[in-house]
Amino acid sequence: MNRAFSKRFAALRATFLAGIAAAADGSIRADRANADVLFIGSSYTYYFEMPAIVAALSQASPRELRTKMIAVGGATLEDHWEPGVAQRAIHERRWDYVVLQEQSTRPLEDRHRMHDYVRRFDQEIKRNGLRPFSLRPGRGAKARSDRPISTPPMHRLRLKLA
Known about the structure:
Blueprint: H1 3-23, E1 34-41, H2 43-46, H3 50-58, E2 64-71, H4 77-81, H5 85-92, E3 97-100, H6 106-109, H7 111-127, E4 132-134, H8 152-161
Parallel strand pairs: 1-2, 1-3, 3-4
């Protein structure tokens, strides 16, 4: 396995788990023994079966985390939106969280389209009383110009979207 990719995955997993832990402040409906999480993304989401790993980690908790994944390598949020598969999945169940992961370079290559589809998903998710959650690759130790996902402009773009 590529060592650099393995380090990036570990950072990505830690970012997600920290986010779920921070969000698990009682906002998951207390009347349920389980929490349901829908993942929509690209290879960063499926390569190491992140939903399955997160669900397995949750087994140490009194609440089981059940997941569903819609992920295609290289897919953008637009690619997920246009055929309607993601919207149908959003409506299929009363999810506690919907995790969105945009294709890694899309924010720099076409940030306006990315903004458009993030907003579409955000509206659709909230319209159904659900909670969106953004998943992104980790920044790493320091920004490098050869890693567009870790540059200061990318960081500013993420803050703007939040």
